[in-house]
Amino acid sequence: xxxxxxxxxxxxxxxxxxxxxxxxxxxxxxxxxxxxxxxxxxxxxxxxxxxxxxxxxxxxxxxxxxxxxxxxxxxxxxxxxxxxxxxxxxxxxxxxxxxxxxxxxxxxxxxxxxxxxxxxxxxxxxxxxxxxxxxxxxxxxxxxxxxxxxxxxxxxxxxxxxxxxxxxxxxxxxxxxxxxxxxxxxxxxxxxxxxxxxxxxxxxxxxxxxxxxxxxxxxxxxxxxxxxxxxxxxxxxxxxxxxxxxxxxxxxxxxxxxxxxxxxxxxxxxxxxxxxxxxxxxxxxxxxxxxxxxxxxxxxxx
Length: 302
Description:
Residues 6-139 form the YqaJ viral recombinase domain. The longest helix has 34 residues, at 216-249. The chain is built from eleven helices and nine strands. The chain is an alpha+beta fold. The termini are far apart.
């Protein structure tokens, strides 16, 4: 299938790259973002980051190096695989090992992330991705190979873990059946996807409306108050440390430390003085004044 058709079909189930987000293990994607993608509320275009772009380009290099070092021949499987019992579980695998019931996942990683691959370590988001592939294919093991910093190559074998696989089946079933099919969003979190979801679901409030909140709201409000206090302490600390660095720079724009570059540069911005425009040219101001409705969230003690 072509790429557009592949992107459309990917919405019909949960793939290996979705599992970490659903399990709360992804650094880049949140559960709500996966939900919005599956119900068709995000653009179909798949815009890759620079890291993902070069990861795709280097996939073949990683696969070839794996074969060179292990002697294991690999092949592409140009299809979206589907679990026989749970059709919403999909797998778009990088490679399969010829003559074995095993597969290969190809990765690239920054030099700054090399500690995640030390010894027997495998980043948890990739570990469950490979277990997801074993769940779909029924295979007994999966290899993962990673090129770190462009000059360090590591490969490791992951054995099938039926306990983890059953956990993933339960997790993905709950997400697909209770949220995607019913179009009931999962519990919101602090991600931009959750903020956008709530903004789109409830863009305008009913004027002067009021409701009794459940008892859980009191717990959340206590946590919110504590979080605000912690945030203030953190912001004050950040400001203090930034000011100490600014004092070191003085009139200099850029400072060089052993592992960082610190800058305090001049920035010029141009903004329209709306008050002056309204005073001097009220007709023009009114002509281009565009009203907008938004909702402001607030909490006060009673």
